[in-house]
Amino acid sequence: MKEYRILPDAEMQKQNEYIAKIRALVLGAKETAGEVKYAFVQTFGCQQNEADSEKIAGMCVAMGYEICSEPALADLIMVNTCAVREHAEQKALSIIGQYKHLKNAKPDMLIGVCGCMVTQEHRKEGIKHSYPYVDFVLGTSSLHRLPELIYTKIQRGKRLYCPEEKEYLVAEGIPIHRESTYRAWVSIMYGCNNFCTYCIVPYVRGRERSRRPDDIIAEVRELVEQGYKDITLLGQNVNSYGKDAKSDDGEIYDFADLLADIDKIEGDYYIRFMTSHPKDASNKLIDVIAESKHVAHQFHLPMQSGSDSILKAMNRHYDTEKYLRTVDYLRKRVPDVTISSDIIVGFPSETDEDFEATLDMLRRVKFDMTYSFIYSPRKDTPAAAMDCQIPDAIKGERMNRLLETQNAIALEKNKPMEGRIIKVLCDGPSKNNENVYSGRSEGNKIVLFDGDESDIGKFLSIKITRAETFALYGEKI
Ligand code: SAH
Ligand code: SF4
Ligand code: F3S
C-alpha cells in the first residue's frame, strides 16, 4: 500500500462550510437587490498557475460569484502571481498598483493576491506596506483556504495575511472552473525537490507531493467523457511522480505506470505532460509513449544549457551526453516526435565557449521549439550569490544569437510538413487576424487555416500548404 500526503477531509469539509456561508451571502444579495457579484481572476506564470487559477475560479463560482473578464466589473479580484523571473514579479506588482483606482471607485471590492510571488516573506511584507488596499494575501500552500479568508475578511474587515502551512499537502476536491471545453490541465503533483541553483520554484511551491493515481485517472476519465480532446498532465518534474509516496511493501508506481493507465481510457483525445527533467526521463517512459494510443508525440525536455560545466553549476544532474542519449532513444522509438526545450542564457560564469556549446547542442538536437530566457537572479537562490554575474549587454547579445540560430532550425524542421495532411485541434480565430483560424497539431505546433465557428474544439484534417518559423499554414480538407 502506498501512502500519499493528502490534506485531511476535515480541512476540506471546513472550507466547504465557508463556501456555503459565502454563497448564502452572495446569492442573498442577488435575491434581495438583484445584484450579481462578479469575480475576476488574473494569472501570471506557468501552466501550474493557470491550473491553480481554474481552482480559484472554481471556488469563486461555488461561493456564488460569476466569473467576469473585466477587472472594473469585479467585486472580487484575485491576482495569481509568478516569481520565476524579475520581470514576472514586476508585471504583477504593476497590475496590483493599477487596481488601486478600481478599489477607490468601488470600496466594497475585495482584492486578493496569491501565488508564487507572495509565498516569499519579503513580497508578502511588501504588499502589506506598499499596497494597503489589498485585502488579503495567500501563498501556494494555502490556496484551498481561500473561502475561509474571504469569509473572515467579510466578517471582520481586517486585512489578512495567511501564513504558509508547515507541510505542503495535496488538497483534493477543490472545485475547478475550466477555461476551455476541450483543452484541460490536470495537476498530477505539486512542488519540486530539485533545487536547480537559479530557480525559485522549490522555495515557493514546497516539496514534491503526488496525487493518488485513482484521483488523477478519475479526473481524466471524466474529462474525456465530457468531450475534452487535449489533456495536459502537470508537474514541475513529472518523472518524480509517485516517488514521494511511502510504500510499506516496496511497491513502485511511477509516472510511466500512471501514463500507461491513463492511456487505457477509451476516447478520441491526446494526453500530454510537462515538465520532464532530463536527469530522470526514463526509457520506460519513452516506451510507454511509443506503445500508447493517446499520448501525443511531443516531448518538452528542458536542456537549460549545452555546457557541461554550466549544467553542473546549475545543479541539473545530467550532462550533454546523457541528454543526447535520451533524445536518441526518443527519436528511435517515436520517430515523428517533436521536441521542445527551455534554455537559459547568461547564467553566472557562462563564458563565450559555454554559450557556443549551447548553440552547438541546438544544432545537434534540432529542437522544434525552444523557450529561451535571460538569466534573472532570484533572491536567496545559490546562483544569485555566485561570482561572475554576466552583464546585461552580453546576455542580450547571446539571446539574439540564440534566437537567430533556433529560428533557422525551427524553419528547417517545419519545411518538410508542407504538403502533408495533419490532425489539428481548432482553437478559434487567431490573435492577430480574426479571419484566420488557429489550432495546434499533435506536435503542439501552431497551425493557421480558414475556419469557422463550428470548428472550435474539433479535430480537423488540415493540408499544410506553407511552413514558416513559428506557424504552419494550411487548408481544411
Ligand atoms: N520545472 C520545470 C520548469 C520550471 S520554470 C523544469 O525544470 O523544466 C520554467 C523555466 O523557466 C525553466 O525551465 C527555466 O528555463 C526558466 N527559469 C527558471 N528560473 C529562471 C531564472 N532565474 N532566470 C531565467 N530563467 C529561469
Ligand atoms: Fe526549478 Fe529545477 Fe525544479 Fe524545474 S526542476 S522547477 S527548474 S528547481
Ligand atoms: Fe510557475 Fe512562476 Fe510559480 S513559473 S511555479 S508560477 S514561480
TL;DR?
The protein has helices spanning 9-33, 47-62, 86-105, 121-130, 146-156, 201-205, 213-225, 255-263, 283-291, 308-313, 320-333, 352-365, 392-414; strands spanning 2-3, 38-43, 66-67, 76-81, 110-115, 136-138, 160-161, 183-187, 189-190, 209-210, 230-234, 246-247, 270-274, 298-300, 338-345, 369-374, 421-429, 437-441, 446-449, 459-467, 472-476. It is globular, with a radius of gyration of 23 Å. Helix content is 37%, strand content 20%.
Describe the structure.
This protein is α/β, with parallel strands linked by helices and 477 residues long. It is built from 13 helices and 21 strands. The strands form 6 sheets. Strands 3-2-4-5-6-7 form a 6-stranded parallel sheet, with helices on both faces. It has a 5-stranded mixed barrel with strand order 17-18-19-21-20. Helix 1 packs across helix 5 and helix 9 (283-291) runs parallel beside helix 11 (320-333). The longest helix has 25 residues, at 9-33. The protein is globular. The chain starts with a strand and ends with a strand. Bound molecules: S-adenosyl-L-homocysteine, iron/sulfur cluster (SF4) and FE3-S4 cluster.
Note the main attributes of this structure.
binds FE3-S4 cluster; five-stranded mixed barrel; 13 helices; binds S-adenosyl-L-homocysteine; binds iron/sulfur cluster; alpha/beta; single chain
